[in-house]
Amino acid sequence: MSSGKKFKIVFNAPVVLGFSAICCIALLLSRLTLGVSDKLIFSVYRSSLADILTYFRFIGHIFGHANLEHLVGNLTMILVLGPMLEEKYGSKDLIFVIVATAIVTGLVNFIFFSNVALMGASGVVFAFILLSSMTGFRSREIPMTFIIVAVVYLGGQIYDGLFVKDNVSQLTHIVGGLVGSILGYIGADK
Fold this sequence. Notes:
Order of helices and strands: HHHHHHHH
CATH topology: Rhomboid-like fold
Number of domains: 1
Low-confidence stretches: none
CATH architecture: Up-down Bundle
CATH superfamily: Rhomboid-like
Radius of gyration: 18 Å
Oligomer: single chain
Strand content: under 5%
């Protein structure tokens, strides 16, 4: 027995879906240009401040990914957490979180790591993780979930940064998490 009700697809989180689409396009452009687009726009590294693209890269690096596995790993978390955050905080505030995270992580890499090109949305992922754990934050109350998430994720990144040698920028994860925590605290009244 069918009730006659039809399902429809809803464009529920335009910022999250748009962000995800840009990341997919960036990976496609990377493949089509053999990585030239990554160097021009989708990674941040120490370069001349006279180069106008340097400033685009402070944000553009969050859209670039090294490969499909890197992209899928980041987008999975963004697509899980992002819609809830966009519903709670609104599209404009979520754009602010994404851009703030991009600029802060881009600047940290630019200033402190002269020989490292940074790309990927993992700073945004960590900002979303800690921001989502702050959704229950109220005046003079700290959610236990926030404490556990902070210890597990940030503690894990600190450990990995000290003891694991890989091509992952744990500092970007930590900085992204701090941006999400600070913005979550500031926006706690929403």
